[in-house]
Every structure is written in C-alpha cells, then in structure tokens.
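Regression test case RT-17, inverse folding.

Input:
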C-alpha cells in the first residue's frame, strides 16, 4: 500500500525569514496531528536551513526545488546534492517552469543526471513530468510523458526506481485554476507514468513508486484526486502558501 504524500512547492514565494516562519509557525502543529499522510515543504533555498533548524526531527519533511548534479565546481547559482543533504530529504527535479528555460541543465538528460545524483546524495527526487496544452491538443500526451519518465529514470537501480516520487503535472493545469479531471489524471498516471516505470523496471516497481498529481490542486478538489486508485497525493503550488494548506492535507489523509 503506497503512503499518500502532499508536497508544497512554494516556488519563489515566502523566501524571507519572517514570511517563511510566519506560515510554518501556523501550520506545523496542526499538520503534525494529521496521521496517514507524508508532508514535504519545498521552500526557496534562502530559508531551507532555517526551516531545517526550526522543524528539527519532525513529521514535516523538507525538500529543495532544484539541484545541480555535480558535487562542486564552476556552476554559478547552483547547489549540489551534498549541500542539500543535511538540510532536506527531498528535491523537486524537472519542474516545467525550469524545463521551460530550454537550458542544457534542464533537458531530459540533465534531469536524469540530477535524479541519479539525488539518490547518490541520499535525497529522494520528486520528478515532474507533463505535457503542454499544444502537445495535448496534438494527442501527444502519452508519448511526451512516457518519454520524460523513461529518460528521467534511465539507468537507475531497481530500488531507486521504486523509491522515486513522480509528479504528473500537465503544464496547462499549473496555476490556471483549470485542473485536469481526476479521471484523466488517473488514466495518464496509469498508462504513461506507471507504464513507463513498468517498461523500465517491471510491474512491481511501477506499483511501488508514488505518483502525485499537480496543477491547480485546492482544498476543495484534493479528495477527488486522492480518491483515484493511481494517484498517491499532490504537488501543490498556490494552495500551499497559506494556512488552507492544513485543510488540504487533512482532506488528503481521509483517503
Ligand atoms: P499550482 O502549481 O498548484 O499553483 O497549480 C503546481 C506546481 O507547479 O507544482
């Protein structure tokens, strides 16, 4: 049985100490009381160390929003797996807002290097995949998503593939107030996300990996997603920036 997971992607918000602390002080105790769901907060780098200290060993885990694959070197503006390893347990990789840069540190091959480096550094990657509106219109969703998953997980060990967290986030649904229907998200996750994991690592690994849905998830719709058999939780942007996030997590725990 896969344990539900709700990951908060703060993006470029709440990166000043007082803002981050303001929210975390409000949500940490109520979140700590909710059983049966893993919670990961992914704040900007600027407050990751602070929140690691404030939360200490707690039921609320932390994640970074990106990472380079190299251990150190001439990579201005980047952080490495070992720099994060003492601060957080997870790292979001390949978010569409980063892939959109088109840069060589955000293509499929780079994301694969980052996924391997994350496991090498003791972090669990949350790998984002998803098609654009145009790709969807063109009927290319399955091809795009399958391709992204198989590239991201290429050459992993079986145990790593099982422990990887994948997030299916159709680009057109992110921040648009127009989520995918739960049935459609469930279908793509089963066919294209778990399908690609099964092709590479076998059906058992495909059933073990946790797969989240992301894109306009709110307290009011989270249960419609977590009610789906293939959806193990959500990657939440806008609705993770305020105290309503507690209600979203509470509803996810009712699964
Ligand atoms: P959203 O963002 O919940 O604001 O749509 C989700 C994401 O980009 O991870």
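Golden output:
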């Amino acid at each position: 049985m896969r344990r539900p997971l709700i990951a908060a992607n703060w993006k470029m918000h709440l990166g000043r100490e007082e803002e981050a602390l303001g929210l975390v002080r409000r949500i940490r105790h109520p979140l700590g009381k909710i059983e049966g769901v893993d919670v990961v907060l992914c704040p900007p780098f600027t407050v990751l160390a602070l929140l690691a200290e404030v939360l200490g060993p707690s039921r609320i885990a932390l994640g970074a929003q990106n990472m380079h694959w190299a251990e150190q070197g001439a990579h201005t503006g980047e952080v490495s797996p070992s720099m994060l390893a003492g601060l957080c347990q997870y790292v979001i990789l390949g978010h569409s807002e980063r892939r959109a840069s088109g840069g060589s540190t955000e293509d499929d091959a780079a994301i694969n290097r980052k996924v391997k480096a994350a496991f090498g550094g003791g972090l669990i990657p949350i790998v984002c995949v998803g098609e654009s509106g145009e790709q969807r219109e063109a009927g290319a969703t399955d091809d795009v998503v399958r391709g992204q998953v198989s590239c991201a997980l290429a050459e992993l060990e079986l145990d790593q593939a099982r422990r990887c967290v994948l997030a299916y986030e159709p680009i057109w649904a992110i921040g648009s107030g127009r989520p995918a229907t739960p049935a459609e998200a469930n279908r793509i996750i089963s066919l294209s996300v778990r399908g690609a994991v099964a092709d590479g690592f076998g059906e058992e690994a495909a059933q073990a990996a946790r797969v989240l849905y992301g894109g306009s998830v709110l307290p009011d719709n989270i249960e419609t997603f977590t009610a789906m058999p293939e959806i193990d939780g959500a990657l939440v942007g806008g609705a993770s920036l305020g105290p309503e996030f507690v209600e979203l997590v509470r509803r996810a725990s009712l699964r």
